[in-house]
Task: structure prediction
Amino acid sequence: MTENQGTPLIQIKNLKKYFPVREGWGKLKYIHAVESVPLSIWPGETLGLVGESGCGKTTLGRTILRLYEPSSGNILFKGEDITRAAMLPYRRKMQIIFQDPSSSLNPRMTVGEIIGEPIDIHGLAKTREDRKERIAALLAKVGLNSEHANRYPHEFSGGQQQRIGIARALAVEPEFIVCDEPVSALDVSIQSQIVNMLEDMQADLGLSYLFISHDISVVRHISRRIGVMYLGYLVELSESSELYKKPLHPYTRTLLQAVPIPDPQKTRSRERSVLEGEIPNPLESPPGCVFHTLCPKATGRCAELVPELREAEPGHQVACHLYAT
Ligand code: SF4
Result:
């Protein structure tokens, strides 16, 4: 299903995540990693999340899974509020694929043990034979074979290690997976294989993804909708093709202008805006719009009032005073 009907699989309401830091002997300050993000992800949908590193997208993904506890706000899974629920039953339904496959796999465990561990935790295999068959089936699903179960992670290439990480996530038959920069540590030639595999698995198993990447061109390939984050805020959310055709937020336009085009003539003729100004300190976010210190369109109002994320056009939301009615 790709239409927004019924109950969202994942819904987050005003989710915030702050991390405390102390500078020397000074008083405790907070990094506002995620700031009041509202978001819904529908069954069978891939929602892409882009932004520069440090914008809060990974923190958001991990907070949705309660790997980080939210500072405030609510997380709903199929309409059920899980913000303070015991997570073990939901861990089966909500999984993660990590950015760096080598450090996410225990080097002392064989591939069979790595994939078998979540099967054991959730008691999914009835017999030893059933467990073995499940592991073999998962390896086959990600393009590896059953003999690989006896090997250790260091015996595999980066792409194969990521396939093992995907098999581990699939082992508990999840409905939702946070794909946290799953291809950014891989060679370009391997990236499309992994992305295509994730798409095939989605078509097969009806999975929903939150696909996080700093590379907007990778996100475009796989996502139905794309959200853009800047310094903890969701600043734009739209259908993927619409966002490319008609980006509204000045920050999204800058991101898109930075995507390389494999045509020198088009590259020369395309519009470019250079951001000038101070990049805000994440410990002391500026008042008003968080982008105003760099925004070429900023007005006096932008330094005073935080713009709300609102629908500027049907299905296209943006947090910018230029589109406030
Ligand atoms: Fe720029 Fe103002 Fe819009 Fe923020 S609200 S993006 S500063 S125009």
